[in-house]
Amino acid sequence: MAKDSKKQKAKIDIGIGKDQRKAIADGLSRLLADEYTLYLKTHNFHWNVTGPMFNTLHLMFETHYNEAALAVDLVAERIRALGFPAPGTYKQYAALSSIKETEGVPEAMAMVRLLVEGHEACVKTARSIFPLADEAHDEPTADLLTQRMQLHEKTAWMLRALLE
Asked: pTM for this one?
């Protein structure tokens, strides 16, 4: 008996239909792109910040990009758990992200403003996915989104405080 040369995919039966899982995974792919773009921007600013607040911002940005590195993994793994491939290239992230790259090296407070905008963009993207997760009774995704929104809102607030 000849073996079938095609691998059979294991069926995903988690109580959420394929179309709903796809819609949620597509939203999470946009969030992943935002998270990764913000990670890269924060790391760039960590390397290149200068001025009287150098040490404070350098250390703060390091804390932020380390957290973001963990977050991108959580979001990507949720996409995989829903049964879809996670985007993982700069080209995909550039197409999916609502956060634009920053050209050159801005001054320190401009970096802070740009990071506030990036954190707020992540909140808006996460919030836009929430109704899909809620409708599908996808509590793990809803929990992930809630955690991401909470962290990004708090980080944006703390960064905004530096601008006052």
From this structure: 0.92
